[in-house]
């Protein structure tokens, strides 16, 4: 498999959001001429509002509204000056009140995103290190990444994984001044907590450990003076903690607040903090509204409001406890998450609830893994118990219907979230389809396999027989691949779908940028299996091409496709894989919508290359039919080396040659960090040498037959297609002899001599192959992961190396 192009994260997010927008659950517009907080108008219908982050409902409090209106009358709509020069007349009073709430100095920022961008680069020194919880809010991650330009290391750990955190602390405890761990207090999707007390115990063990908590979702609804979950757990604010709260969301106004008990740190941040210095300050109306809210927070009334919300949260939890709905994390926060698993199920469920009169949020990638799509429900003081009960009844009724509509079941949802179903049901088997799962190609009818799957790549029946022998029974686990063959037939026994899948060990950075893999390889010198996972994939790492036969004209084609996807989901679980990869699809595949709906992300692969040799009976004829530009390339970059090198077709190599082939291929494989894979087993080359369908195109300098410049490993598929599977080269002689271009030329020459009508040139170096007349095809892969950790961790590493 060739290098997959660097994944454009924004493009993927755009495709996912577009899919959700088309389903009518994202990028909606609220209607109506007024807003109460209890209901929200969507597309002309008044819905009960279970999507707000204003948990206490203070944004509708008359005192905040009056204060805002009065401030506009007195001071205008804005105060257009940087706070570094002068603050509007209301700021000083607000800062005093917020400081009184926290009991420590504070900094007010325009919003939390700009606040993080201002504070983190000021607080973190060049000799510090940052460790991110992989579910910490995007705004924190984005601000932390700014420090890459100062060479501050940034690490990431799995969510709330204290063992992993301690490992990272030990890694840096003797080399870094401060170790910053950055996390949310309350996480915005599942509503779960940071283990604050356990983290503080860890800081007693490692004094250089500092914390940066974003507690905007814990603000107001809990804690002394409504200062949030984190401070409630801490009791007081230690000097090794920076705490972000919010003046928006539950607080009811606008802006954000940083609390800091370290005087030196506070002065450093307050004096100069990027956006804190240069960005516009809060509008007078926002400052006045925040001041009115601060007075409520400083009064006993805040505890009455918190209790009213608590009663609603407890009631919602009680109602949910009598259902079989997959509540992902049960706690006392106002944020709840009901899993749906596949995005298409989430779309269906949200639309059903809106038709019943309830507005909820869809949780979707990148906030959650694609296969962990679900419904985020927030409880506020606006919600009455009758509508809370009504929402639960609506969810209980519509959840199984949404599953049925999207051809899934509760077990798949619970499995996606690693939960045990409350009630287990036997899955219903389709009477229209038969799905066969075979353990070896020897159990598959050779004629049938070659009819539907032959004629491309190195995976006709004989090719797979070869691969099974080469990648089984080896010493190292990365050299042992498990093969499975899937055939979906209709009631008459006619195949609708046919494919093969493998489970094998992949390096987690296999698809990452080369410089990231180079850094990870340094750690693999100590731990060879660092950041590696079992992956279930269509095809295997040795093959390229359309690994799937699918009769899209068959009336049961959709059922066959969905049957394969559900089967692979089960196989991933039973075989212990961490990711499923489907490849190699064209740009306009009929599977695109279905795969997004099943929780797959699309990534672009390198272009695939083929050569059509129909009607070509000589190399001279082939060169003559090239374009003028490509003929010039041949005369300038290939033909001049003919006098320097000679090629030979070797069907059976001697022991010396086989060792040289291994060495040359190993050099290519080690250099290709853009496709960072484990090596192939040594016996692969011996078995290739014993197999009549394989041969070697060997390039040597003229007069020096024992000096091998390069070798192309070629397979003949059913006398239909020639497959140059991979290449070995001596990089020290690359410029002198141009071995790669010479091998491409000799491969075409050999295919013509064999009278083969096609070459499958694979996905490497499409630029060079195009110049020799290859046709280029766009190719895509679809990935489904158990979580976003690896993707986000590699994203954090980008730019550091």
TrEMBL record:
<keyword id="KW-0808">Transferase</keyword>
<dbReference type="InterPro" id="IPR015422">
    <property type="entry name" value="PyrdxlP-dep_Trfase_small"/>
</dbReference>
<dbReference type="InterPro" id="IPR015421">
    <property type="entry name" value="PyrdxlP-dep_Trfase_major"/>
</dbReference>
<feature type="domain" description="Aminotransferase class I/classII large">
    <location>
        <begin position="50"/>
        <end position="391"/>
    </location>
</feature>
<dbReference type="GO" id="GO:0008710">
    <property type="term" value="F:8-amino-7-oxononanoate synthase activity"/>
</dbReference>
<dbReference type="Pfam" id="PF00155">
    <property type="entry name" value="Aminotran_1_2"/>
</dbReference>
<keyword id="KW-0012">Acyltransferase</keyword>
<dbReference type="InterPro" id="IPR050087">
    <property type="entry name" value="AON_synthase_class-II"/>
</dbReference>
<feature type="domain" description="BioF2-like acetyltransferase">
    <location>
        <begin position="666"/>
        <end position="769"/>
    </location>
</feature>
<dbReference type="InterPro" id="IPR016181">
    <property type="entry name" value="Acyl_CoA_acyltransferase"/>
</dbReference>
<dbReference type="GO" id="GO:0030170">
    <property type="term" value="F:pyridoxal phosphate binding"/>
</dbReference>
<dbReference type="InterPro" id="IPR004839">
    <property type="entry name" value="Aminotransferase_I/II_large"/>
</dbReference>
<dbReference type="InterPro" id="IPR038740">
    <property type="entry name" value="BioF2-like_GNAT_dom"/>
</dbReference>
<protein>
    <submittedName>
        <fullName>8-amino-7-oxononanoate synthase</fullName>
        <ecNumber>2.3.1.47</ecNumber>
    </submittedName>
</protein>
<dbReference type="InterPro" id="IPR015424">
    <property type="entry name" value="PyrdxlP-dep_Trfase"/>
</dbReference>
<dbReference type="Pfam" id="PF13480">
    <property type="entry name" value="Acetyltransf_6"/>
</dbReference>
